[in-house]
Amino acid sequence: MGEKKKRISALDMPDVPAGQLPEHMEIQRTRVVAKSDAPIHTEGVQYCGAYMSMGVDNSLQLDTFCSDFRVEVKRLTEDEIEFDMVGIDASLANAFRRILIAEVPTMAVEKVLVVNNTSVIADEILAHRLGLIPLKADPRLFEYLSENDAPNERNTIVYRLDVSCGKDSPRITVKSDQLKWLPNGSGLLRGTQSYTSFSCSQESLPEFSENPPKLMHDDITIAKIGPGQAIELEAHAVKGIGKVHAKWSPVATAWYRMLPEIVLLREIEGESAEELKKKCPVNVFDVEDIGNGRKKAVVKNPRACTLCRECIYGASEDHVEVRRVKDHFIFTVESSGALPPEVLFTEAVKILEEKCDRVISELS
Ligand code: SF4
């Protein structure tokens, strides 16, 4: 380690086949390179004529995009999905992330009618806590409740909470499973009228009889009440989006990172190989026996790289290059429970599609 980089004169460089970029320019176009101080080549090269003088067309072709674009699911659990999205620009990957966080709708408690609250928690704090409880209700089965609409069986879910602690009882913890679904709507009256206008029971609707609205978790603490205290209220959940309030966001998190690519710029053998292996905290490197008692470093698990840059500090920068592939995104979506994570992503795709249709129709 520590030898100087060999410089090659431009006149001695090998000819590049027509229609291709020289290697260093191809890296600049397609990779972000992490240097020990800061990353370089971070911007995307969008201009179609950027390499025209070299006979390379940099325009985005729809048929090439369609043939190259792919999505591969790497991990899928009940509430989390990790998939690779390949052949797409960072702006589109980010559009999906933002739509997932802020524009895919869910159901959440929006209105709380407090009949009685003698607990130490103020009404507004209680209402806020109820709003943040994730509901397992498919938002696609509901309509938005606009200002002029009456709450009905198609746009509102009503829950009732009625708990009290006896005068001589120990303090009790009120949990989310004590919220009871009222399929016939509100049981409270404003004058002679109910707060909701349900024309039928939600239980009688085929979409809910199979799939009744539930709470995602039964053990979320809502409040603690002491002897003689009571809470009686109704919580009305409606459809909304995370852009209005984070309680409607369907994801606990949605994030992506570019695919790591670790390149050994030269053979690293012996002690140096062992040193390199030890430097990486997530075991990206391994040491292979190459016979005659010799060992060399190899890249074993580049996907695990966290970009900590430990392996390129100091003299190692000439031996190892840490890159990111600009059009390959590792996406992770963690659902808060209303919809399975794979459905959330397809919903985000539909929303982006609708936006594109709107732009096209406006333009035409
Ligand atoms: S940047 Fe960090 S995580 Fe990535 S290979 Fe180097 S040492 Fe390992």
From TrEMBL:
One of its GO terms (biological process) is DNA-templated transcription. It holds the Pfam family RNA_pol_L. GO terms for molecular function: DNA binding; DNA-directed RNA polymerase activity; protein dimerization activity. GO terms for cellular component: RNA polymerase I complex; RNA polymerase III complex. Residues 80-362 form the DNA-directed RNA polymerase RpoA/D/Rpb3-type domain. The keyword GTP-binding does not apply. It is found in: Nucleus. Its main location: nucleus. Keywords: DNA-directed RNA polymerase, Nucleus, Transcription. CDD domains: RNAP_I_II_AC40 (cd07032). The keyword Manganese does not apply. Belongs to the archaeal Rpo3/eukaryotic RPB3 RNA polymerase subunit family. This is DNA-directed RNA polymerases I and III subunit RPAC1.
